[in-house]
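Task 17 of the worksheet. Students: predict the tertiary structure of the chain below and write it out as structure tokens. Keep your answer in the requested format; marks are given for formatting as well as content.
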Amino acid sequence: DLLLGKGLRGGGRLRRELDGHRSELEAGLKAATKNSDSGSGAFAALPRYVRINRMHAEDNAAVAAVKQRLRQALVKARKQEIAAGRPANADLAKVCEDKLVPEVLMLQSGARPWLQGLPDVENGTLVLQDRSSCLSALAAGLKPG
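Model answer:
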């Protein structure tokens, strides 16, 4: 809220401490997000997460098919990058299951531009979702139904 929101409400020691370091925090945020659109910022190296929507992929065979289509799309994207003469990370097509959150897949950071427009994303089978929102749902103990 201090850096990106409408400011901090309330008072107290924490607010005074944060306000005292505001310029440092702003400089750190600016440095971390500098050139993030070009993929060279600090956040550019973070993995991308997708969640498999079990309402669209109800059984294990359907989940396996979704993962396979995702891998194939990323392999194709990597080949297109190479054909265009752009550097393409060998791990671009790597799809890993998250060790903590079921139905969440971790992709390499370079996969981001290739996710938009995938049929499974467009039809809601794959949901582009931050891992933290999946963790909060897991912590809340939400169950289907």
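Marker's comment: Strands lie at 48-52, 95-97, 104-107, 126-128. The longest helix spans residues 60-83.
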